[in-house]
């Protein structure tokens, strides 16, 4: 499948998706969203694909936000009637397999929000994160006020949303927004290698681990612990649990069947 606004490549069991509007710093418009929804659905449905990486083309930006030129003249009623931005939650956050955002420059507004939809973020040393929507007379609309606050805490999230200031890679790592910083030149190779490590894990367990950690983000402690226990118990019924534990006991590498 070829797309107008993204590039999709397969690297063995890893799907690499690249936002490809460098002339607009990979700004996210309706067409980009449609391509991403399709690409993430194809990734999720392909049994040979186990982990994905999302990055931006060009050296400057992961994504500089939702496309301001698409929104500038759009009437409020249309934002409401189209439930503008709701597709991101269904089509991107709803992906069941793990995926990584490799942030290679500006991740602003919707770009920061898209990166935070990933299971984790790897950032280049040139990455800059921000929610500057206030400067446009609006506010985050794709989850930024919620996910940024959960990631970095109220003080930093509030300061960033109210002043529009950007956070560099080091501060983002220190604050818990990103998992790791990688030199810009090595970011893609590192992200693909990390994704390959995840892709080599038993796939059902990878999906369940993702679901469990997301539960900590989205539910209360008691409910999260209860769900974790149930999901753990579910995994004990898989062939991969028997294989993984038997391989450990027999001191040999495990061979996963994905069931
Ligand atoms: N949308 C559309 N085009 C963009 C965007 C964007 N978000 N960002 C950059 N571009 C375009 C520029 O217009 C320019 O195009 P052209 O050459 O045709 O003029 C090109 O990309 C290059 O950009 P610059 O010349 O501005 O590059 P600089 O290096 O000078 O600056 C910046 C880089 C600092 C990243 C700057 O481009 C910038 O500030 N961009 C906008 C960042 C921003 O405000 N993002 C938030 C957008 S709003 C959002 O994401 C969520 C809105 C939620 C609304 C909720 C409603 C329900």
Automatic annotation (TrEMBL):
Flavoprotein as a keyword of this entry, yes or no, is no
Q: What is its EC number?
A: 4.2.1.17
Keyword terms of this UniProt record = Fatty acid metabolism, Lipid metabolism, Lyase
* Pfam families membership: ECH_1
Q: Which residues cross the membrane?
A: none
Q: What biological process terms from GO does the record include?
A: fatty acid beta-oxidation
Q: So which domain of life are we looking at?
A: Bacteria
- Main EC class the enzyme belongs to: lyase
**Record's catalysed reaction(s):** a 4-saturated-(3S)-3-hydroxyacyl-CoA = a (3E)-enoyl-CoA + H2O; a (3S)-3-hydroxyacyl-CoA = a (2E)-enoyl-CoA + H2O
Molecular function per GO: enoyl-CoA hydratase activity
Q: Which family does it belong to?
A: Belongs to the enoyl-CoA hydratase/isomerase family.
Q: What does it do?
A: Could possibly oxidize fatty acids using specific components.
Q: Which PANTHER family match?
A: ENOYL-COA HYDRATASE, MITOCHONDRIAL (PTHR11941:SF54), ENOYL-COA HYDRATASE-RELATED (PTHR11941)
UniProt name for this protein: enoyl-CoA hydratase
